[in-house]
User: Which sequence fits this backbone?
């Protein structure tokens, strides 16, 4: 009987222990869900709901000022895909995004490498490099519009004095130069974001890697190529991905700089969506452009993940 009694007592003890552990885990899961719930609700309110509404609007013909609406099905999408303006805006968006991201990453990596070195005035240099990111977009674009002005621009004056150009150029009013000018503004405005990511990662790379490479006779270029770049791969993957998404959807710099002009030389899909909605007074057409923009961006991101999806860093 004593063995049976001990067995029952032990079983009860184990059962209480397991029940208590399950209860504690349930409590932890419940607390975790409650903590995450506000974030989920915020994401639904800010992203999911507007996306669903945009899809619904894109299937209608809606006057944004009068409020009249009529269900037209896929007519807005069919008209959009038959429009040469759409393909022009899509191509402009790809060119603008590729150029801006390339310039942002190149300048960001270069300035990150510079700030990772110890030199006199290091803190001042860090503050100056962060200035473009802290300056309001409106102020930055107005500054560049003045600098690139065909008559009074200091940028044109410097280029003429240095004999790089023969006469002043109206950069933002030229179908040839407006897009490069906007890419320059975007690259200058947004490169500090990449700089900070790169600098943070550079400061975690063990110095022993470079010391060993130096003892083996490696040059600076070889150390950059075989040590620094592989270590930055994960950071650059994230930086490029975020810049792709943000730049492709960018509205303010282009609108403040050229409003999609001259003609439609710098019109991108966000500019086209704004023009159709608020100038063309058709919320349905504008929403269809927004939905197609989302789908195009999803394809670009998917392709990017397929090509460079691994962020695993060498050890």
Assistant:
């Amino acid at each position: 009987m004593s063995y049976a009694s001990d067995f029952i007592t032990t079983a009860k003890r184990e059962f209480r222990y397991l029940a208590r552990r399950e209860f504690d885990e349930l409590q932890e899961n419940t607390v975790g869900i409650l903590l995450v719930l506000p974030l989920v609700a915020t994401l639904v309110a800010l992203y999911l709901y507007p996306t669903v509404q945009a899809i619904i609007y894109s299937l209608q013909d809606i006057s944004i000022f009068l409020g009249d609406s009529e269900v037209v099905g896929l007519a807005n999408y069919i008209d959009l895909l038959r429009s040469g303006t759409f393909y022009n805006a899509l191509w402009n968006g790809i060119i603008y995004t590729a150029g801006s991201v390339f310039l942002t990453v190149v300048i960001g990596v270069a300035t990150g490498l510079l700030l990772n070195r110890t030199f006199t005035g290091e803190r001042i240099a860090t503050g100056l490099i962060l200035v473009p990111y802290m300056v309001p977009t409106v102020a930055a674009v107005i500054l560049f519009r003045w600098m690139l002005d065909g008559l009074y621009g200091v940028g044109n004056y410097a280029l003429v004095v240095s004999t790089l150009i023969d006469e002043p150029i109206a950069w933002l009013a030229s179908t040839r130069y407006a897009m490069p000018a906007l890419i320059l503004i975007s690259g200058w405005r947004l490169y500090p974001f990449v700089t900070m990511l790169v600098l943070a990662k550079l400061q975690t790379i063990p110095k022993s890697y470079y010391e060993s490479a130096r003892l083996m006779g490696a040059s600076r270029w070889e150390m950059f190529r075989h040590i620094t770049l592989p270590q930055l791969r994960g950071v650059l993957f994230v930086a490029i991905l975020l810049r792709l998404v943000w730049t492709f959807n960018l509205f303010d710099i282009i609108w403040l700089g050229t409003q999609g002009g001259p003609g439609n030389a710098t019109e991108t899909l966000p500019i086209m969506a704004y023009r159709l909605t608020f100038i063309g007074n058709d919320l349905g057409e504008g929403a269809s452009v927004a939905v197609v923009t989302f789908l195009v961006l999803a394809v670009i991101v998917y392709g990017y993940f397929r090509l460079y999806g691994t962020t695993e860093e060498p050890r």
DSSP finds twelve helices and two strands in the chain. The chain has a mean pLDDT of 84.
